[in-house]
Structure formats: C-alpha cells, structure tokens
Amino acid sequence: MGMLREYIFDNFKLKVISILIAIMLWFAISYIGESRMSVSVHITLQNLKKNFIVRKVEPDDVLLTISGPVSTLKNMRAKDIKVTVDLSMSKSGSNIYNLQKSNVVITKGVKIEEIKPDYIIIEVGRAIEK
Predict the structure, then answer these.
(1) Contact predicate 68/33, CB 8 Å
(2) Does the pLDDT value for residue 1 go beyond 70?
(3) Does residue 38 contact residue 84 with C-beta atoms inside 8 Å?
(4) Are residues 45 and 82 in the same domain?
(5) pLDDT score at 22
(6) Are residues 8 and 39 in the same domain?
C-alpha cells in the first residue's frame, strides 16, 4: 500500500500539469479545429403547380462537401440538411435547375464548399384528371 501511495503522490504537481495539458489539447482539437466532410442529401421539391406532377428527378440526391467546427460537424447528419428546389416556374417536360448555395438549408456556422452535381433535371407532366 505504501508503494502505491508513493507512486501516486511522487511528482504530484508534474502529474496534475500533464493532465491539464492533455485536457486542453483534447479540447482544442475537438472543439476549435475546422474539418470537412461530404454528405449525400435527398432533394426536396417545393411549390409544384396543382395541375402538374413530377415524373422523374435525376439525380435524387446530391453530394455536399461542407466545412465547419469539428464540434458541429461530428453531430451533423444528412437529415439536418435540406436541399430545396422551387418548382413554381416549371413547365411541362424536362426542366434543368442549377443548384446553388442558396438552395441549401444548413446549420449556422457550417459552410458549403461544393455541390455535386451542381444541377438536376426534373421531368414534369400535366396531371390527368378523371
């Protein structure tokens, strides 16, 4: 028992300082650093006119490259990000929409680095009423 007590309390100040430095380094790396990640996000379509239906969306998902604080990115999931396309101006047939950062709704403090592909093709047709 005496040997264990000597092992713990020998150079006690040095051990406490070592633990404090380790905690500060862990905090700096985990919460202050910037990181990048890629996320596949499903496209949400909005404001389609009543007499139209969406026949085809190509592609259904886009790959976003985002960057931000490690503490924010480590908890982020694809469901936390929305990529929306406004179809209020769509016409019957194939419509090409360029995707921009303004189409993406994301947590504050996270930057959108890249959207792949940067366009989608949506085929819209008239709804047939019976």
Answers:
(1) no
(2) no
(3) no
(4) yes
(5) 93
(6) no
* CATH number of residue 41's parent domain: 2.170.120.30
Three-state SS string over the chain comes to: CHHHHHHHHCCHHHHHHHHHHHHHHHHHHHHHCEEEEEEEEEEEEECCCCCEEEEEEECCEEEEEEEEEHHHHCCCCHHHCEEEEECCCCCCEEEEEECCHHHEECCCCCEEEEEECCEEEEEEEECCCC
Is the same domain home to 52 and 88?
yes
pLDDT (average), residues 58-68: 89
Confidence check: pLDDT of 11 > 90? no
For the beta carbon of residue 121, count every other beta carbon within 10 angstroms.
13
Q: pTM above the 0.70 mark?
A: no
The per-residue b/e assignment along 50-82, b for 16 or more CB within 10 angstroms, e otherwise, is eeeeeeebeeeebebebebeeebbeebeeeebe
How many domains would you assign to the chain?
A: 2
Same-domain pairing of 25 and 39: no
- Average pLDDT score over residue span 20-46: 83
